[in-house]
Amino acid sequence: MRTSPTGFGNPWLQLALSTLCVTASEMFLKTGAMATAQISQQWGWTGVTGLASGLVWIGIVFRILSFVTWLYVLKHLPLSVAFPASQVVHVLVPLSSWWILGEFISPLRWSGIALVLAGLALVAKPAARLEEKL
Amino acid sequence: MNWFSLLLIFIALLTFVIAQLLLKHAMESTVTRGFGQRTFGKNIALGTFLMAISFFLTLGLLQKFDLSYLYPFEGLTVIFIIVAAAILLREKLTAKLIIGSLLISAGVVLVAIS
Fold first, then answer.
1. Are A74 and B81 an interchain contact pair (Cβ–Cβ within 8 Å)?
2. How large is the ipTM?
């Protein structure tokens, strides 16, 4: 296995940035979509009316950033490790929806989040050890 | 729910998984050969195109079904991706990786149905 870059180029740091960008994107898209929900009944279902909101555009920029960082991650990590690890968004998005948007999370949903976290710990641990050996 | 919708869900999933494999293949090729070569150009273009197809199919499905109904299928992508990566990209799966992915998948499904 080839050595992976350290510092800002560390693929795990970039993976974290990528998932944070997805989370930020979802927050901006949701807020922007709610702000523009009343614009047009006729075109609302296509989602394009959301483009009237600046927040949606910020969301799109974050989405593009997440895609670029994801490509970088793919260059350095195996897909079978990087993709499961990227599922941390299923923890980050509900948590931010709860914390920032004030959405409600049921006990069953909290247990789902806990399951994802347990899985992530299993996936990330052997990979982290692999990194240390390099 | 009819057969056609199920087929659309399946295609949306399949195009997403293939797109990830192509993107991985494209980025892998840049390690030794850089960005100015055909393997990169071809795979990144096709991968992005398939991502777009998957995106719009999902958007169309979201108009007909609840997110909580479609989300569990998304939870399954983790399983499909690691299996495809093992077979097609010859990546090595460890027991921890497989159990971890199953837990993540189950967790995503639980988050979706709750």
1. no
2. 0.88
